[in-house]
Amino acid sequence: MSKKTRERARIRAAKARRRRKILLTALSVGCVALLAVSVIVHLYGNRKPQFAALKNRILASELGIVPPAADGPIVFLSVCDSKQRAYVAKGKAATLEAAWKAAEEGARKLISQKNIKAVWVKADIVSSVEEMPAADLHREIAESRYPYFFRKGISFDPAFDVAFLEGEVNANRMLRYTDSAPDSAESPLNLSNINQYLKNYGTEIKSLPENVTLFSTAGFFCGLDGVVIDLYNEGLDAGRRVIDAADDVYIKDIIISASQYLSEMIQPGGQFIYGYFPNFDHEIDNYNILRHTGSIWSLLNYYRMTGDTSLIAGIDSAVNYLLETAVEFREPGAAYVVERKDNEVKLGGSGLAVIMLTEYMDVFGTDTYIDMVRLLADGILELQDPGAGTYYHVLNYPDYSPKAEFRTIYYDGEATFALTRAYTYTREQKYLDGAAAAVENFIANDYARYRDHWVAYALNEITQYLPEPRYYEFALKNVSDNLNRIYNAATLHPTYLELLMAGWRTHERLLESGVQIDALDDFDVKYFAETVYKRAFHMLNGYFYPEYAMYMRSPGKFTNAFFVREDSFRIRIDDIQHYIGGNYYYTLYYDQIRPYLTGEFLDGIHKGGLLTADGGDGYDDSGGDEE
Q: How far is 551 from 544, CA to CA, in rounded Å?
């Protein structure tokens, strides 16, 4: 090898060494950087924006919170990873800032010990306290009227060493609502459930206190986006986010998310997951074909709202499940929906099937199910006394022998609505005649007293074809007779909004038709609109916002669903259906409702939230399930 060749080789080797050195240096720097990031994530990864944002909101603002005790403010911090119940830390000190620091230190310790990621953080500052004998809790619970409607935290000692937020109390069933009579000898506090919950913190209590301190809080919620949301502090809205307006845009977003939740409950074979009790994440071991069918109707409205074609496969599978597993044919030429678990033919089952199938044909512009609609509608007519307009409700299957003349008032309205829908799609007079006979029975027997949304749907449908003044009179009576009760109802009963919105549509048709009725002169449309708005606003208390869900066993599993608070926060497919049903039409007609709402009225609803309704007719103890 020549000298020149050796020199070139030496230079190449030197360059190669330099490149390797640069590469090794870069790799070393990269490793150090990655290590540093790992350390930072490990040490500070849970230092999400929530704590700082909440602290700034609370300490930098004039919240007007007066410390309830001489020894200073009390702060609770609830931290949730969306997978398991929130862990709660508290701090008490001479100043709000010091109390916050103590609570945050406790929360960070829990994050480290439990190895959780802070996805949702909720801050509660105690704003009022009331000490009382524990025995007096019976009175407090009784005054809340309904299970899980007690909306205050409970401390077992004045120092708040053992204290639970309202969300912890109700989500963990720490109270015995069934034994809440004021004179009950048994403590309303469930020691077993309380200690089961305290196991999460490695502690327990041996006995229940003789005295307790009830407290309310000013609450704030913050997610990963770092945006702080104020929460209502008392009454029926306690613990739920403050909103500017329950307008059509806001409510549409809510029902789209709930509809998506419902659509995801459809299983591969077309059957729904029936529902849950979220407190302890128990799936409801039951099924009901009526509720299955009504839930498809809601999903059809969801498709109508969004045009999301990915919904079609699930909708079709749910329809096929109904038709293939529940529909039976009876000679000559009638069909019925059979509830298999009871071997029953239910009038309401056939009614809901007709309603859903006609809605399907309308949404997709098809006549695919027109023959099935005829057969099911003929089955309904077989159960009707055409002279009286009344229906027989339940038959045995498979012999079709009579079983129950009456099961639930809802069946009458469902069947009548269905017959009118059958007429809409077939134009066969017998279906309209059957519906008209039923409406005459409603009028004669004052069905307005039942506050039945299906009757409202039926009246709205039939007045398209039979604009009889007495039908319009009764439609308005079905609204006006029930406005006070609905306006003041503490429970959510989502079917009330369905009644109101069906009534609103009928009222608008009446105005457009020019039909003259005396009832219109005294009809208070302003109060009607206010009742509609208040219902829509109040029903948000049945929507699983994360600030509600975070105290349940599997929070992320239930967010965006609708629930029934008084039945252990029950989520069931028909619950979601009815919440969606009224809200869907609310969004369509909001622009007509809004002009009747004054600024004073809206301010009273939005700023103060809804306090517990007064007694008497202000409370609703009616209702019942559509079986």
A: 11
